[in-house]
Protein backbone atom coordinates (compact mmCIF):
# COMPACT_ATOMS: atom_id res chain seq x y z
CA UNK A 1 0.00 0.00 0.00
CA UNK A 2 1.17 3.59 -0.61
CA UNK A 3 2.31 6.07 2.00
CA UNK A 4 0.25 9.28 2.16
CA UNK A 5 2.45 12.39 2.45
CA UNK A 6 2.04 16.12 1.72
CA UNK A 7 2.41 16.92 -1.96
CA UNK A 8 5.25 19.42 -1.43
CA UNK A 9 7.27 17.37 1.08
CA UNK A 10 10.95 17.36 -0.09
CA UNK A 11 11.28 13.63 0.58
CA UNK A 12 8.59 12.93 -2.04
CA UNK A 13 10.92 13.55 -5.00
CA UNK A 14 13.65 11.35 -3.50
CA UNK A 15 11.21 8.52 -2.76
CA UNK A 16 9.68 8.63 -6.23
CA UNK A 17 13.16 8.41 -7.78
CA UNK A 18 13.73 5.32 -5.64
CA UNK A 19 10.51 3.85 -7.05
CA UNK A 20 8.67 4.06 -3.71
CA UNK A 21 4.89 4.36 -4.09
CA UNK A 22 3.70 7.61 -2.52
CA UNK A 23 0.29 9.27 -2.60
CA UNK A 24 -0.55 12.90 -1.82
CA UNK A 25 -3.42 14.12 0.35
CA UNK A 26 -5.61 15.08 -2.60
CA UNK A 27 -5.54 11.63 -4.16
CA UNK A 28 -5.96 9.89 -0.82
CA UNK A 29 -9.14 11.87 -0.06
CA UNK A 30 -10.74 10.88 -3.36
CA UNK A 31 -9.72 7.21 -3.40
CA UNK A 32 -12.59 4.74 -3.04
CA UNK A 33 -11.89 1.37 -1.45
CA UNK A 34 -13.77 -1.89 -1.96
CA UNK A 35 -12.85 -5.61 -2.00
CA UNK A 36 -11.17 -6.90 -5.15
CA UNK A 37 -12.86 -9.66 -7.13
CA UNK A 38 -10.37 -12.19 -8.50
CA UNK A 39 -11.29 -15.19 -10.66
CA UNK A 40 -8.88 -18.15 -10.73
CA UNK A 41 -9.04 -20.60 -13.63
CA UNK A 42 -7.44 -23.63 -11.99
CA UNK A 43 -6.11 -26.01 -14.64
CA UNK A 44 -3.82 -27.94 -12.30
CA UNK A 45 -4.70 -31.62 -11.76
CA UNK A 46 -4.25 -31.44 -7.98
CA UNK A 47 -6.56 -28.49 -7.58
CA UNK A 48 -6.60 -28.36 -3.78
CA UNK A 49 -2.81 -27.96 -3.63
CA UNK A 50 -2.90 -25.18 -6.22
CA UNK A 51 -5.71 -23.46 -4.32
CA UNK A 52 -3.66 -23.39 -1.12
CA UNK A 53 -0.53 -22.13 -2.84
CA UNK A 54 -2.30 -19.27 -4.58
CA UNK A 55 -4.52 -18.25 -1.68
CA UNK A 56 -1.51 -18.09 0.64
CA UNK A 57 0.01 -15.43 -1.61
CA UNK A 58 -3.21 -13.54 -2.34
CA UNK A 59 -4.05 -13.42 1.35
CA UNK A 60 -0.81 -11.80 2.49
CA UNK A 61 -1.76 -8.19 1.68
CA UNK A 62 -3.88 -5.52 3.42
CA UNK A 63 -6.35 -5.69 0.49
CA UNK A 64 -9.56 -7.69 0.91
CA UNK A 65 -9.93 -10.16 -1.94
CA UNK A 66 -13.02 -12.10 -3.01
CA UNK A 67 -12.15 -15.32 -4.88
CA UNK A 68 -14.11 -17.17 -7.58
CA UNK A 69 -12.71 -20.55 -8.63
CA UNK A 70 -13.28 -21.63 -12.21
CA UNK A 71 -12.89 -25.07 -13.81
CA UNK A 72 -13.25 -26.04 -17.45
CA UNK A 73 -16.60 -27.42 -18.59
CA UNK A 74 -14.97 -29.27 -21.50
CA UNK A 75 -12.52 -31.32 -19.43
CA UNK A 76 -13.23 -33.76 -16.60
CA UNK A 77 -10.73 -33.51 -13.74
CA UNK A 78 -9.49 -36.90 -12.49
CA UNK A 79 -7.65 -35.85 -9.34
CA UNK A 80 -10.40 -33.92 -7.57
CA UNK A 81 -13.83 -35.04 -6.45
CA UNK A 82 -17.01 -33.92 -8.16
CA UNK A 83 -18.24 -32.81 -4.73
CA UNK A 84 -15.27 -30.42 -4.37
CA UNK A 85 -15.89 -28.91 -7.81
CA UNK A 86 -19.63 -28.60 -7.24
CA UNK A 87 -19.13 -26.96 -3.86
CA UNK A 88 -16.30 -24.53 -4.58
CA UNK A 89 -16.09 -24.04 -8.37
CA UNK A 90 -18.15 -22.66 -11.19
CA UNK A 91 -17.83 -22.60 -14.98
CA UNK A 92 -17.28 -19.80 -17.44
CA UNK A 93 -20.86 -19.82 -18.78
CA UNK A 94 -22.09 -18.81 -15.32
CA UNK A 95 -19.76 -15.85 -14.85
CA UNK A 96 -19.14 -14.53 -18.36
CA UNK A 97 -21.53 -11.62 -17.87
CA UNK A 98 -19.58 -10.43 -14.82
CA UNK A 99 -16.46 -8.29 -14.64
CA UNK A 100 -13.46 -9.01 -12.45
CA UNK A 101 -10.63 -6.90 -11.15
CA UNK A 102 -8.07 -9.65 -11.71
CA UNK A 103 -7.73 -13.14 -13.12
CA UNK A 104 -5.20 -15.95 -12.64
CA UNK A 105 -4.77 -18.78 -15.16
CA UNK A 106 -2.65 -21.59 -13.73
CA UNK A 107 -0.33 -24.06 -15.38
CA UNK A 108 -1.48 -27.42 -16.72
CA UNK A 109 0.26 -30.76 -17.50
CA UNK A 110 -0.35 -30.48 -21.26
CA UNK A 111 2.69 -28.53 -22.37
CA UNK A 112 4.08 -31.12 -24.81
CA UNK A 113 0.81 -31.06 -26.75
CA UNK A 114 0.07 -28.52 -29.46
CA UNK A 115 -2.21 -25.85 -28.05
CA UNK A 116 -5.03 -26.72 -30.46
CA UNK A 117 -4.84 -30.39 -29.42
CA UNK A 118 -5.77 -29.61 -25.80
CA UNK A 119 -9.42 -30.59 -25.40
CA UNK A 120 -10.35 -27.37 -23.63
CA UNK A 121 -8.34 -25.02 -25.86
CA UNK A 122 -11.43 -23.50 -27.50
CA UNK A 123 -12.95 -22.83 -24.08
CA UNK A 124 -9.68 -21.34 -22.84
CA UNK A 125 -9.39 -19.01 -25.84
CA UNK A 126 -12.97 -17.84 -25.22
CA UNK A 127 -12.00 -17.01 -21.62
CA UNK A 128 -8.80 -15.23 -22.68
CA UNK A 129 -10.70 -13.20 -25.26
CA UNK A 130 -13.36 -12.30 -22.65
CA UNK A 131 -10.61 -11.16 -20.26
CA UNK A 132 -9.62 -8.35 -22.64
CA UNK A 133 -12.76 -6.41 -21.76
CA UNK A 134 -13.93 -7.99 -18.50
CA UNK A 135 -10.72 -8.16 -16.43
CA UNK A 136 -8.40 -5.34 -15.39
CA UNK A 137 -5.22 -7.46 -15.26
CA UNK A 138 -4.53 -11.17 -15.77
CA UNK A 139 -1.73 -13.26 -14.27
CA UNK A 140 -0.71 -16.35 -16.28
CA UNK A 141 1.45 -19.10 -14.78
CA UNK A 142 3.72 -21.68 -16.53
CA UNK A 143 1.68 -23.34 -19.33
CA UNK A 144 -0.93 -20.64 -18.77
CA UNK A 145 1.82 -18.10 -19.55
CA UNK A 146 2.79 -19.94 -22.72
CA UNK A 147 -0.87 -20.15 -23.76
CA UNK A 148 -1.26 -16.38 -23.23
CA UNK A 149 1.91 -15.58 -25.17
CA UNK A 150 0.67 -17.76 -28.05
CA UNK A 151 -2.93 -16.54 -28.10
CA UNK A 152 -2.41 -12.84 -27.43
CA UNK A 153 1.01 -12.28 -29.05
CA UNK A 154 1.62 -15.14 -31.49
CA UNK A 155 4.71 -16.46 -29.69
CA UNK A 156 5.15 -20.23 -30.07
CA UNK A 157 6.57 -22.59 -27.46
CA UNK A 158 9.21 -25.22 -28.24
CA UNK A 159 10.15 -28.48 -26.58
CA UNK A 160 13.34 -28.63 -24.52
CA UNK A 161 15.93 -31.44 -24.83
CA UNK A 162 15.23 -32.26 -21.15
CA UNK A 163 12.91 -30.97 -18.49
CA UNK A 164 13.72 -27.59 -16.97
CA UNK A 165 13.51 -28.59 -13.33
CA UNK A 166 15.00 -26.81 -10.35
CA UNK A 167 15.61 -23.46 -8.66
CA UNK A 168 17.33 -20.92 -10.88
CA UNK A 169 18.75 -17.43 -10.46
CA UNK A 170 17.10 -14.65 -12.46
CA UNK A 171 18.22 -11.12 -13.26
CA UNK A 172 15.89 -8.11 -13.26
CA UNK A 173 16.08 -6.16 -16.55
CA UNK A 174 13.69 -3.28 -15.75
CA UNK A 175 13.94 -2.56 -12.00
CA UNK A 176 11.69 0.52 -12.19
CA UNK A 177 8.65 -1.44 -13.44
CA UNK A 178 6.14 -1.63 -10.60
CA UNK A 179 5.70 -5.41 -10.78
CA UNK A 180 9.26 -5.93 -9.52
CA UNK A 181 9.37 -3.10 -6.98
CA UNK A 182 11.40 -4.23 -3.98
CA UNK A 183 12.98 -7.18 -5.83
CA UNK A 184 16.65 -7.95 -5.43
CA UNK A 185 18.72 -7.51 -8.60
CA UNK A 186 19.09 -11.30 -8.67
CA UNK A 187 16.48 -13.64 -7.22
CA UNK A 188 15.55 -17.34 -7.28
CA UNK A 189 12.46 -19.00 -8.72
CA UNK A 190 11.34 -22.62 -9.33
CA UNK A 191 10.75 -24.03 -12.82
CA UNK A 192 9.15 -27.32 -13.79
CA UNK A 193 8.41 -27.65 -17.50
CA UNK A 194 9.31 -29.44 -20.72
CA UNK A 195 8.86 -26.44 -23.02
CA UNK A 196 10.07 -22.87 -23.32
CA UNK A 197 9.60 -19.70 -25.37
CA UNK A 198 12.22 -17.88 -27.40
CA UNK A 199 13.74 -14.97 -25.51
CA UNK A 200 14.46 -13.09 -28.73
CA UNK A 201 10.82 -13.18 -29.82
CA UNK A 202 9.81 -11.54 -26.54
CA UNK A 203 12.53 -8.89 -26.82
CA UNK A 204 11.47 -8.05 -30.38
CA UNK A 205 7.73 -7.94 -29.71
CA UNK A 206 6.52 -4.31 -29.61
CA UNK A 207 3.85 -5.02 -26.97
CA UNK A 208 5.95 -6.94 -24.44
CA UNK A 209 8.69 -6.33 -21.88
CA UNK A 210 10.94 -9.08 -20.55
CA UNK A 211 11.27 -8.15 -16.87
CA UNK A 212 13.41 -11.06 -15.63
CA UNK A 213 15.23 -14.03 -17.11
CA UNK A 214 17.79 -16.71 -16.29
CA UNK A 215 20.83 -17.85 -18.24
CA UNK A 216 19.87 -21.43 -17.36
CA UNK A 217 16.07 -21.34 -17.38
CA UNK A 218 15.29 -18.62 -19.91
CA UNK A 219 12.54 -15.99 -19.62
CA UNK A 220 10.59 -15.83 -16.35
CA UNK A 221 8.61 -12.58 -16.01
CA UNK A 222 7.00 -10.99 -19.07
CA UNK A 223 4.50 -8.11 -19.00
CA UNK A 224 2.46 -6.51 -21.74
CA UNK A 225 3.11 -2.79 -22.07
CA UNK A 226 -0.55 -2.06 -21.33
CA UNK A 227 -0.21 -4.20 -18.14
CA UNK A 228 -3.26 -6.28 -19.09
CA UNK A 229 -1.27 -9.50 -19.15
CA UNK A 230 1.53 -10.73 -16.90
CA UNK A 231 3.21 -14.03 -17.76
CA UNK A 232 5.26 -16.11 -15.28
CA UNK A 233 6.90 -19.10 -16.96
CA UNK A 234 7.96 -20.62 -13.62
CA UNK A 235 6.20 -21.46 -10.37
CA UNK A 236 6.90 -18.84 -7.72
CA UNK A 237 3.77 -20.08 -5.93
CA UNK A 238 5.36 -23.50 -5.26
CA UNK A 239 5.88 -24.62 -1.67
CA UNK A 240 9.25 -25.83 -0.39
CA UNK A 241 8.49 -29.52 -1.00
CA UNK A 242 6.64 -29.25 -4.32
CA UNK A 243 9.59 -29.95 -6.61
CA UNK A 244 10.64 -32.87 -4.40
CA UNK A 245 7.15 -34.35 -4.64
CA UNK A 246 7.12 -33.95 -8.43
CA UNK A 247 10.58 -35.50 -8.75
CA UNK A 248 9.69 -38.52 -6.61
CA UNK A 249 6.40 -38.96 -8.45
CA UNK A 250 8.20 -39.01 -11.82
CA UNK A 251 10.77 -41.52 -10.53
CA UNK A 252 7.96 -43.81 -9.34
CA UNK A 253 6.36 -43.58 -12.78
CA UNK A 254 9.61 -44.69 -14.39
CA UNK A 255 10.29 -41.35 -16.07
CA UNK A 256 13.94 -40.64 -16.84
CA UNK A 257 14.33 -37.37 -14.97
CA UNK A 258 17.32 -35.51 -13.54
CA UNK A 259 17.50 -34.31 -9.94
CA UNK A 260 16.06 -30.79 -9.62
CA UNK A 261 18.96 -28.38 -10.06
CA UNK A 262 20.12 -26.10 -7.23
CA UNK A 263 17.42 -27.51 -4.97
CA UNK A 264 18.52 -30.34 -2.66
CA UNK A 265 21.61 -29.60 -0.54
CA UNK A 266 24.59 -31.26 -2.27
CA UNK A 267 22.10 -32.62 -4.85
CA UNK A 268 21.06 -35.23 -2.31
CA UNK A 269 17.32 -36.04 -2.59
CA UNK A 270 17.38 -37.37 0.96
CA UNK A 271 18.17 -33.92 2.35
CA UNK A 272 15.59 -31.25 3.14
CA UNK A 273 15.46 -28.55 0.43
CA UNK A 274 15.49 -24.89 1.42
CA UNK A 275 13.03 -22.30 0.21
CA UNK A 276 14.95 -19.41 -1.41
CA UNK A 277 12.07 -17.83 -3.38
CA UNK A 278 9.27 -17.33 -0.81
CA UNK A 279 9.81 -13.60 -0.17
CA UNK A 280 9.84 -12.74 -3.87
CA UNK A 281 6.70 -14.81 -4.47
CA UNK A 282 4.83 -12.80 -1.83
CA UNK A 283 6.25 -9.55 -3.20
CA UNK A 284 5.25 -10.37 -6.78
CA UNK A 285 1.64 -11.15 -5.89
CA UNK A 286 1.43 -8.14 -3.60
CA UNK A 287 2.77 -5.85 -6.33
CA UNK A 288 0.33 -7.30 -8.88
CA UNK A 289 -2.67 -6.87 -6.59
CA UNK A 290 -1.71 -3.35 -5.58
CA UNK A 291 -0.32 -1.70 -8.70
CA UNK A 292 -2.05 -3.57 -11.54
CA UNK A 293 -5.39 -4.43 -9.97
CA UNK A 294 -6.26 -2.23 -6.97
CA UNK A 295 -4.80 1.00 -8.37
CA UNK A 296 -6.18 0.45 -11.89
CA UNK A 297 -9.57 -1.23 -11.60
CA UNK A 298 -12.73 0.92 -11.75
CA UNK A 299 -14.55 1.37 -8.44
CA UNK A 300 -17.78 0.66 -10.33
CA UNK A 301 -17.65 -1.39 -13.52
CA UNK A 302 -19.86 0.23 -16.17
TrEMBL record:
Active site: 142, 235, 237
Family: Belongs to the MetA family.
Keyword Amino-acid biosynthesis applies: yes
Catalysed reaction equations from the record: L-homoserine + acetyl-CoA = O-acetyl-L-homoserine + CoA
Stored PANTHER family: HOMOSERINE O-SUCCINYLTRANSFERASE (PTHR20919)
GO molecular function term, any single one: homoserine O-succinyltransferase activity
Sites marked Important for substrate specificity: 192
Its EC number(s): 2.3.1.31
Purpose of the protein: Transfers an acetyl group from acetyl-CoA to L-homoserine, forming acetyl-L-homoserine.
Pathway entry: Amino-acid biosynthesis; L-methionine biosynthesis via de novo pathway; O-acetyl-L-homoserine from L-homoserine: step 1/1
Organism for this UniProt entry: Bacillus smithii 7_3_47FAA
Protein name: Homoserine O-acetyltransferase
Localization, UniProt: Cytoplasm
SUPFAM superfamilies, alphabetized: Class I glutamine amidotransferase-like (SSF52317)
Site residues, Important for acyl-CoA specificity: 111
GO cellular component: cytoplasm
